[in-house]
Specification:
single chain, about 80% helix, about 260 residues
């Protein structure tokens, strides 16, 4: 029965990545730690975040390729974020190992629900009057990129997220990207940060690879396929459609996981 939930978790994670650039952990970690008994031990949440990071690597890569073909990647405003996120992700991984299940599990459940509500309230996060054609970062954009880049970088390692949702908010709300360009850019960055985060998790806790290799294979293959399909869909429909679909999925998932974890 656990393999069924592995597939469901990975499929949902892939859809979230392809549609809105969400990290696999947003969907995968809550399902694994709530519905799979083997992930309810002392380091179950830590292993679940590592598997989510591994799934993010190829899932983000294939998503990036689809958005790149549609000219939806823009790093001229995102390079500062990339550097900061990479620098802090390893620190976050070690902090996550010390934190354990209580912090990681509860955080990801609540985060999933809140992100879903945000998409339902505002499905299209882009600014219609934004100008992203300027080749140079202003001092304000640099300050924003530094602050959020360092914060997201730590979160990448700590919660097992590639930082996709938070990057999406920063790119659209503060740097003026339209939704699809923000998704393409964030998944490009996530490809590298997820790789670094997974390697850090695996080095700190080698049992992830030695004992969970079967789960890794199932989740990586499923998430990658789902990411590819959903990314192609997202590039053919309007931003609001993508936002609404993502909001419905995450709100329903977050509410269900919170209920099962705290009120069952």
């Amino acid at each position: 029965m656990e393999y069924f939930w592995y597939v469901i978790a990975a499929f949902g994670a892939g859809v979230g990545t392809g549609l809105a650039g969400l990290s696999a952990a947003t969907v995968m970690v809550p399902i694994l730690i709530v519905l799979c008994p083997s992930f309810q031990g002392d380091y179950g949440a830590y292993q679940a975040t590592a598997i989510a990071l591994a799934s993010d690597i190829l899932g983000s890569a294939v998503t990036t390729s689809v958005y790149a073909k549609n000219k939806r990647i823009d790093l001229k405003h995102g390079w500062v974020m990339l550097v900061c996120i990479v620098a802090l992700s390893t620190v976050g991984s070690y902090a996550a190992y010390l934190a354990g299940n209580v912090v990681l599990g509860g955080f990801t459940l609540i985060l999933t629900f809140c992100i879903g509500i945000r998409f339902l309230v505002k499905p299209d996060t882009s600014k219609p009057d934004a100008d992203s054609s300027n080749m140079h970062l202003s001092w304000k954009e640099i300050a924003i990129s530094l602050f959020f880049g360092l914060t997201i970088g730590f979160g990448t390692g700590f919660v097992g997220i590639g930082g996709g949702m938070m990057m999406l908010v920063v790119f659209t709300a503060f740097l003026g990207y339209d939704l699809k360009t923000a998704v393409g850019t964030s998944t490009f960055i996530m490809t590298f940060t997820a790789l670094i985060g997974f390697i850090s998790h695996a080095m700190i806790h080698p049992a992830i690879v030695l004992e969970r290799w079967n789960v890794l294979i199932v989740c990586i293959v499923t998430a990658t396929a789902a990411s590819l399909i959903s990314a192609r869909f997202a590039n053919r429909v309007k931003n609001k459609t993508v936002g609404r679909v993502t909001g419905v999925i995450l709100t329903a998932l977050g509410a269900a996981m919170i209920y099962l974890n705290y009120f069952r």
